[in-house]
Design brief:
There is one protein chain. The chain is an alpha/beta fold. It has a single domain, classed as Rossmann fold. Helix 3 packs parallel to helix 5. The longest helix has 19 residues. The N and C termini lie far apart (45 Å). The relative contact order is 0.18.
Length: 268
């Protein structure tokens, strides 16, 4: 069993504290979902776990099987078994999807156990067909000219090929129509096993209709303020974050733009 453990994590961006004491443990074999209003630190948490240099850990710790991730570069974290499916995947010219994925797979293997090109192509074809992706997508430059749905589907294909221990999925449902959401969800559910754990970040319950989590955590004001089962997400869908705000006595207000989302407000 692999364990990602976050203890009393504080993270600042450009000198401003965003995370204010996050505690979370994710084991392989588990699916976790994090929900919460905009600006509360959900994506900051994902970037801090992967080691983005703009996100400064000011106190607390992130460990993978007891190893302090602060001592590891981004590529070392990936080789150790972490994977991040980004909300806005980058486009990279000159590198095909197939080249990128094979390099990522072999980077995690010793030289004596590199995946052969034939094994790679057979596995790629199988996973690609499972996600209803065309064969030409493998030879296209990484995400170049892809639609939003194609980029998200491509992120899930990479995850299925790389087979990480712990995957962080940052708003993989963002901008997807219902058909694309079903395909992406099918890929995530296909990964469920005792050797795989997931931390999904989302605003909405609809993703969790297709990928039912074992645990749902709600973040507000840079902290996890409540943890429950999938029923917690359904309750939030019905009541919005206002109900939870009132239940916990938190000092937050509804935005004018979206009555179901909240922003943390500090009253000095």
């Amino acid at each position: 069993m692999t364990t990602l453990q976050i203890k009393n994590l504080h993270v600042a961006v450009s000198g401003k504290e965003i995370l204010k004491g996050v505690n979370l443990t994710v084991h392989t074999g588990e699916m976790h979902a994090i929900m919460g209003p905009n600006g509360t630190g959900k994506s900051t948490l994902s970037q801090a776990i992967m080691g983005h240099p703009a996100y400064q850990v000011t106190s607390g710790s992130i460990t993978l099987d007891g190893q302090d991730l602060s001592e590891m570069a981004v590529d070392e974290r990936a080789r150790a078994g972490l994977f991040l499916a980004m909300q806005y995947p980058s486009e990279i010219q000159g590198v095909t999807n197939a080249e990128f994925m094979r390099a990522a797979i072999n980077a995690r293997r010793p030289e004596s156990d590199q995946m052969s090109i034939m094994t790679f192509l057979k596995t790629l074809d199988r996973q690609r067909e499972f996600l209803s992706m065309t064969s030409e997508m493998a030879e296209r430059y990484l995400n170049e000219g892809f639609s939003g749905g194609e980029k998200k589907r491509n992120e899930i294909l990479q995850m299925m090929m790389i087979q990480p221990k712990i995957a962080i999925l940052d708003e993989i449902d963002s901008g997807l129509d219902i058909d694309a959401l079903k395909v992406v969800s099918r890929g995530v559910n296909h990964m469920r096993s005792d050797n795989f754990g997931t931390l999904m970040i989302t605003h909405y319950q609809r993703l969790l209709d297709y990928i039912v989590p074992d645990f749902v955590h709600v973040m507000m004001g840079g902290k996890i303020v409540k943890t429950g089962t999938a029923d917690l997400a359904k309750k939030l869908e019905l009541e919005g974050y206002a109900g939870l705000r009132d239940e916990l006595g938190l000092d937050i207000v509804l935005t004018d733009e979206d009555a179901d989302r909240l922003v943390a407000v500090k009253h000095e």
